[in-house]
Design brief:
248 residues, Purple Acid Phosphatase, chain A, domain 2, globular
């Protein structure tokens, strides 16, 4: 059976077309798979497992239906939803994996990661990442009232948009040395990640060995996923109706 990989869906109430497409994906493609791996940024923002937002609840319910059918679902933190925790796992039947993590697919060791830790040239983002991933910051943030957390999250999103407008695009891509270091440190020959929103398959020659880096696409304009079965990997697109894309 197939294993499917997605990343960077950025689901929220402002992107109903993406949410509907993901729900359809879960009920069709994912329902026939052995496992689904979500490599970060399932949600545009996650301010705590106590977030009652309706669209998020629909997604969590659909994931619960998927896992209830016996399809394993594994989730990595992204830079937008790094506060996913045990409450999310209980609501969805999913399992959180550490980032990065090495998994075995048909006897091959493969490194899975969201990908933001490989973008080391964006120094200001890496500083922010170190701060908000600390246990103390998480504890203090989650202790705030839900409404306050929501306002802070929206402010952070506005700051992120301003940062993206200022930064040279290539600084937001992976750093070649960081990628090479990840291959060497984990002794794998394949890395799968998201975050950069630049889907593609990159073949490299590293230390005399051929290695491969597969980048997953974002779901802003259309859905996409990586299909793995019987040793073969294929990036696939999910067409979104033209009217829905225009409305989004």
């Amino acid at each position: 059976m197939a294993r499917l990989f997605v990343s960077d869906l950025h689901l929220d109430a402002d992107s109903p077309q993406a949410t509907e497409q993901f729900l359809e994906f879960l009920a069709t493609h994912a329902a026939r798979a052995e496992a689904l791996y979500i490599l970060g940024d399932l949600f545009e923002a996650w301010i705590g497992d106590d977030d009652p937002e309706r669209e998020k609840a629909r997604v969590c319910g659909a994931l619960r239906e998927l896992t209830g059918r016996g399809v394993a679902c594994f989730v990595l933190h992204g830079n937008r939803d790094f506060l996913l925790a045990e409450g999310f796992c209980e609501r969805t039947g999913s399992s959180l994996l550490p980032d990065p993590v090495v998994v075995e697919l048909a006897g091959e060791r493969v490194l899975l990661t969201h990908g933001d830790a490989l973008c080391v040239d964006d120094h200001s983002y890496q500083e922010l990442r170190s701060t908000v991933r600390s246990p103390e910051w998480r504890r203090r943030f989650l202790a705030l009232p839900l409404a306050v957390r929501a306002r802070l999250a929206e402010r952070a999103r506005a700051g992120s948009r301003a940062h993206l407008a200022r930064v040279v695009p290539d600084l937001m891509d992976v750093n070649a040395a960081a990628v090479a270091a990840a291959f060497r440190a984990t002794a794998v020959r394949r890395i799968i990640h998201g975050h950069t929103h630049r889907p593609g398959v990159h073949e490299l020659l590293l230390d005399g060995l051929r290695v491969e880096r597969i980048v997953l696409g974002a779901w802003y304009e259309q859905g996409s996923y990586l299909h793995y079965e019987a040793g073969r990997y294929e990036l696939r697109e999910l067409t979104r109706p033209r009217a829905a894309r225009a409305a989004g």
